[in-house]
Amino acid sequence: MKALLLSIFLCLSANSAKNVYICVSPSAKKYHYNKLCRGLKNCTHTIKEVSLQEAKDLNYSICGFED
Ligand SMILES: [Zn+2]
Q: Which of 9, 18, 28, 67 is the most buried (most CB within 10 A)?
């Protein structure tokens, strides 16, 4: 539980910009503040930079883990 919270914290703390990164894939449901996030490395599709609001509008949720 603490590890999970720490991961979320790291993900949030990496946010210095207003945009987030999403993997444009039918199976991708997370948005990432860090473009280097391990979750994005698994992306075999296009990585797209969008606004946080746009990511939420597309039903993406916050990334659960970050390197
Ligand atoms: Zn992430």
A: 28
